[in-house]
Task: inverse folding
């Protein structure tokens, strides 16, 4: 008989990457989270009427999308997709290599966006494109020949296809600044925004939810046919939005895209709420209060998108759309999930100490520092509310206050992460004899 | 809209989704065979079983792979796992309450 520690990692090594892989992605995301709010303090004056263009609001946006959301999505997908596909990631060196190219790339590109130094933007953007191409290859290799969870795998393919479009449009947009554009800026931007938010990051968020939400709620996996129906509607929405980007019947196509997207969201959220309602674990705490708020923002993003499509005469529509989609839905969802998944993964990996000795794993709850999370919860929601007020009232002061409060929340979240890592590495009881 | 097939009608604690999932009793404890269930079905079936038993009976799990994500849940509930010999291609675990 093998002891508990042996059981933990005995066969797990075939699918579980070393702890250093997911945690380096999550750690970088936590650091970029702080940096994004700090960049927004710097760009607070322009934030309420931000609608694109170089400057600190653009840097804050991409520190969030690339630095926090995509960074975490890469780490989480590399750790969790093998559970769904039932086959391991080919080799740990590729995820590590992606991180080493991607992380400095995001930092340099964001610095270029903020300062307006095109050379930095081009260098950072180039590194990001290279890293994400390698990630796309690793993702596709894991999805090819997947043996289980067809809905999760199909969402992975939708994210992969979206990533290809996002990379092409991002390269084109960076190209406009260095004098080598591919697509015209208008269509490139009209493709880039919905496909990056709802396509690449959205499809990973929705697809991984079919693993994560039932796992934390302890409920059966949602029915594949409904998850696939939701995906089909979401893909139809993305295709309609993509067609609209090229200027033919733009408004009707965008309205149709929002209608299809709304139907996709309704089906997805019915599956999620059914999983939560029927799970063995009913009380999921603060983390799932954030997840529920994120879902509300996902719903709210659709009428705001409609306002953008209908050219509602309000100067802050674009900024409001970005806030609701990126801050309200994706970032809030991610932070809710991260505060559950970090202690959970730390517990899975902590069974082997730094010197490889076997020991009894700490419980996820013992790795969770509640006070920093409580501070983060209050600050994050207050920051979002202040930013919404800033956009509606065109108030730079409210934007600056929101960014300051958001920074405080991000620092609190970083404290939670650091404490989890310290407790994970700390002494634990020895494993019992088999 | 499609609510019947999306919302199970039973209470998971008393009549859970996996309450009858291939369970039997043998001399060495309560057995549960979770092979063939899609994730997170095996974890749910196992947690459902161990939360339903009040006596300190070991639980023998028959699985097709190492259930790595089960262990944090077990640890939270005060249970330990140990791998024991099983059939070829099977991962068999013995779960017990921590002393």
Result:
């Amino acid at each position: 008989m093998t002891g508990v520690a042996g059981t933990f990692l005995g066969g797990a090594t075939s699918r579980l990457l070393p702890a250093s892989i997911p945690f380096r992605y999550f750690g970088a995301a936590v650091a970029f989270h702080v940096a994004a709010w700090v960049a927004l303090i710097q760009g607070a004056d322009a934030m309420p009427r931000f609608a694109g263009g170089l400057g600190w609001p653009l840097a804050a946006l991409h520190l969030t999308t690339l630095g926090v959301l995509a960074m975490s999505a890469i780490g989480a997908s590399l750790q969790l997709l093998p559970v769904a596909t039932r086959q391991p990631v080919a080799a740990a060196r590729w995820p590590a290599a992606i991180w080493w190219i991607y992380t400095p790339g995001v930092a340099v590109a964001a610095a270029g966006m903020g300062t307006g130094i095109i050379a930095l933007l081009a260098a950072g953007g180039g590194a990001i494109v290279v890293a994400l191409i390698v990630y796309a290859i690793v993702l596709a290799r894991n999805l090819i020949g997947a043996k289980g969870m067809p809905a999760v795998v199909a969402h992975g393919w939708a994210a992969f296809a979206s990533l290809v479009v996002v990379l092409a449009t991002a390269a084109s947009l960076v190209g406009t600044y260095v004098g080598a554009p591919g697509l015209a800026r208008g269509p490139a931007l009209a493709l880039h925004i919905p496909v990056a938010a709802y396509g690449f990051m959205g499809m990973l968020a929705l697809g991984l939810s079919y693993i994560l939400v039932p796992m934390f709620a302890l409920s059966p996996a949602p029915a594949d046919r409904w998850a696939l129906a939701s995906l089909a509607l979401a893909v139809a929405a993305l295709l309609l939005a993509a067609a609209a980007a090229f200027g033919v019947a733009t408004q009707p196509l965008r309205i149709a895209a929002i209608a299809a997207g709304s139907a996709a969201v309704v089906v997805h959220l019915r599956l999620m709420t059914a999983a939560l309602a029927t799970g063995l674990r009913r009380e999921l705490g603060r983390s799932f209060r954030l997840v529920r708020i994120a879902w509300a923002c996902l719903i709210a993003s659709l009428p705001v998108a409609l306002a953008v499509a209908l050219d509602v005469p309000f100067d802050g529509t674009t900024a409001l759309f970005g806030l609701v989609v990126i801050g309200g839905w994706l970032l809030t969802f991610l932070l809710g999930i991260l505060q559950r998944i970090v202690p959970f993964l730390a517990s899975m990996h902590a069974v082997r100490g730094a010197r490889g000795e076997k020991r009894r794993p700490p419980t996820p709850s013992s790795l969770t520092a509640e006070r920093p999370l409580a501070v983060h919860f209050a600050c994050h929601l207050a920051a979002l509310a202040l930013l919404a007020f800033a956009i509606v009232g065109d108030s730079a002061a409210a934007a600056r206050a929101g960014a300051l409060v958001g920074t405080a929340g991000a620092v609190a979240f970083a404290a939670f992460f650091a404490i989890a890592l310290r407790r994970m590495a700390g002494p634990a009881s020895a494993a019992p004899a088999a | 809209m499609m609510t019947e097939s999306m919302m199970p009608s039973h209470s998971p604690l008393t009549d859970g989704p996996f309450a009858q999932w291939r369970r039997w009793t043998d001399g060495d404890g309560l057995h549960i065979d979770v092979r063939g269930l899609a994730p997170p079905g095996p974890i749910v079936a196992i947690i459902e079983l161990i939360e339903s038993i009040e006596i300190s009976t070991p639980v023998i799990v028959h699985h097709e792979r190492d259930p790595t994500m089960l262990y944090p849940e077990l640890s939270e509930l005060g249970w330990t796992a140990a791998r024991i010999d099983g059939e070829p291609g099977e991962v068999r675990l013995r779960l017990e309450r921590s002393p």
About this structure: The mean pLDDT of chain A is 88. The radius of gyration of chain A is 21 Å. Chain A touches chain B through 50 residues (CB under 8 Å). The CA atoms of residues 172 and 182 of chain A lie 5 Å apart.
